[in-house]
Amino acid sequence: MAVAAALVALRAAARECQLAAPSFSDEQTAQGLAITDELRAHFLPPAQAASTLLQLPAELLSVILFQLGTRDLARLAATCLLLCRDAPTPLPPPRAIGPVETELRRRAGARGLDVGSSLPEGATSWVACLLKRDRRDAQMREVPLAVGHEHSMFLNKGGRLLTCGSDRIDFASLLGHAVGPDADPTVCRTIGPPTPVPSMQGRRIVSVATSDEHCLALSADGEVYSWGDGAYGALGHGDHANRTVPCKIESLRRIERIAAGSSWRSAAVDEKGRLFTWGRAIFFDVDENEDEAPTEFEGPCGLGYELDAEAEYQATPKWVDALSQDRVVGVALGEGFTLAVTDAGAVFSFGFSRDGALRLGSSESEVLPRRIEALAQTRQRFIAVAAGDCHALALTEEGELYGWGYEEANGHGREERTPQRVAALIGQHIKLVYAQCYASCAVTEKGELLTWGESSAEDKLGHEEPQATPTQVAGLSGVAIAAVAICGTHTLVADADGVVWTFGRCQALGLGALGPADGAAVTTPTPIPTLRVRVLNSP
Q1: Could you tell me if 211 and 333 lie in one domain?
Q2: CA–CA dist 229, 150 (Å, integer)
Q3: Domain total for the chain?
Q4: Reported pTM
Q5: Alpha carbons 402 and 394: distance in angstroms, whole number
Q6: Residues 146-203 pLDDT 10s
């Protein structure tokens, strides 16, 4: 009887605590957690009262957690309350912080990320928020797929670089494979299936980027390699020479993000959040009118700093010191313009804007970075940006997507001079966004792929008909998407298991003998046999 009465009293006390929990102070919350731990110790056998991990000294426990990936930390938090010890109360202490949260905060601090002292509105768990942010940050940094007009790049699960497609050796080799001395430079070289780049063997690559002219690869130790067309110093080696194989950019160290854009430009962000750019400095555009002579326009090309009046390029990476007070966490290169997003959630634009705000989203052409006020006025925190030839996209922390620029791929189906929320996506939570040329795509929290863009190349979008606004790719229904790369000719998609699906119109689909004949298109998403790439999924 005494045991039954004790259990009834314990259950009643638990109900009272549950009802009063919202009013608990930090000190009372800590006391409640301590009492819970004491009860657990009473009811469990001594060997199970605490896990083996918790019997270790705190210093040794921190070393163990330091070695774990985000997914393993998430599993610990989900299965071991003693390690998690999570409560929706503000900092600083006396709120008790568990080992998992301590390690996640250490990682954020080491990366210079501002965690803040209060939970986002609607959130109830510090551990969940920190896990989500850590995983999202890694997703933005580690890019396993990239595509150009006639070539594709992949990173397999071991971090090995593979390429496929076609190129002209006399123009610039984008495949990264050495060219023999007897090779005919006028002949188009083709590699059908994804093939490892020999010179990169033994190096673990974590991110790739490409334009139609040149390629970049980022190693796990923060080194950047470039190859392709060296015009305007786009390869970052201080000259204009082409490279047929990847060559390390000696002036870059501890890099975490890379971007390669049209108009022979490149960008990189280091571990301190400093943005470096190089390549073409002056952008030219021509307005061809049937009734009038062509009109030429000239403006800055989106490097973000002043150069000598006659300088047409920057041949080595240079720091954009106008953003020295900000920590850059994302960068996108459009045709003659650049977007940068900071850890504080602000979006900056700079470069050429022939038609007012159509490209930059804020004003006329800008040499130096300028914050886009239309996005600032939303009071949203932005986490990612994407840019095509004449349009741009910005993604908020809450999964809302804003687009602007010409109508082909801004998501609105009409021209927008300033950023506007994409109406077709209201009610959906977007976690990833990509753009290139006149095409765009987004991935929802559920892993659904949405594409839209140029109507003349619907096969690359996975639809039978043109789509001016975001539309789900029916051929990938039921497939959880984790990464995407899109350009003017074809699209690559990696699912949650690392399987790569491909569709579009070119020889760079990676299907080898299964690929399309010249001029044909693969309109249904088709998996590439035997290839698996590294993808980062939500924990």
Answers
A1: yes
A2: 14
A3: 2
A4: 0.80
A5: 5
A6: 999 889 999 999 999 999 998 765 556 899 988 766 666 666 778 889 999 999 998 9
